[in-house]
Amino acid sequence: MTAGSTSTPAAKAAGMQGRVCLVTGATSGIGRETALGLADRGAAVVIVARDAARGRATVADIRRQTGNAAVGMLKADLSSQEQVRGLARDFRARHPHLHVLLNNAGLITPTRSVTVDGVETQFAVNHLACFLLTHLLLDVLKAGTPSRIVNVASQVERLGVIDFDDLGREKTPYDRLDAYYQSKLANVLFTYELARRLEGTGVTANCVHPGVIGTKLLQEYEGRPRPLRFMSKLNRPSPREGATTSLYVATAPELEGVSGCYFRESAESKSSPRSYDTALARRLWKESAKLTGLEQGRA
């Protein structure tokens, strides 16, 4: 695949005709470009949008650019577990199979806030929403095998610490980056544990570092004052380039059956030593199940 392009002969040759893909965080940035790239390859693409108007505009633009009419939208605010459950129900009502689940949505909050479920917002959206949505769609992923789960993490996971005594970052002064690092490490730990649990099912799970890309999320990460935010985009790869690794992991034929891996620059790489701690991953899984009600069997 050529960097900066979602429509190359190689990409077209790979083809995604007949495949159904669900992409979260797809109305802007890397998520939008990922959805565009999947549609360009012929996939049926469902994007998840918090704002219906932006979602409809994104769908119309992707259809126009790709000529692919099989692009649709489902509305959900991923900070709400009730809406995540509704999203899963709505998808399953329309699609008996899912071939690619691309958990791309993520945010950084400048100050500490909690969701309607009482969970710190970054941990809720960046990790728990991904954890819950994936679980709720496992039946259609298994029905669509071979299928793939791709979780968008970040290289900053190496700075993350999972503090089980203070997951909500309320006992110490709130640091937005500390909370972000924790959520990104959680993404990688979850991916590896998920891959172990899905072994032999035909569903694979991998995670990616998209690069340091000139997006709104980077501006939030750097915490630049609004007049200087344009500098975040200077000399940075574009969101289209940032989607390259996600698209590779979601579509590359040579990755069929590859699971439990971390990718950057469209190649398998190593994540932090902490991310391979299986005991830590199992403990995070148990805590995440409790926080999302899955421990009590809530669907």
Keywords:
single chain, 299 residues, alpha/beta, Rossmann fold, eight-stranded mixed beta sheet, 11 helices, globular, disordered N terminus
Please tell me about this protein's structure.
The chain has about 300 residues and is of the alpha/beta class. It has a single domain (about 10-210, about 240-295), classed as NAD(P)-binding Rossmann-like Domain (Rossmann fold). It has helices at about 10-15, 30-40, 50-65, 80-95, 120-135, 140-145, 175-195, 215-220, 240, 245-250, 280-290, and strands at about 20-25, 45-50, 70-75, 100-105, 145-150, 205-210, 260-265, 265-270. The protein has an 8-stranded mixed β-sheet, sandwiched between helices. A hairpin with a 2-residue loop joins strand 7 and strand 8. Helix 4 runs parallel beside helix 5 (about 120-135). The longest helix is centred in the middle third of the chain and has 22 residues, at about 175-195. It starts with 8 loop residues before the first helix and ends in an 8-residue tail after the last helix. Residues about 1-15 and about 215-235 have low confidence and may be disordered.
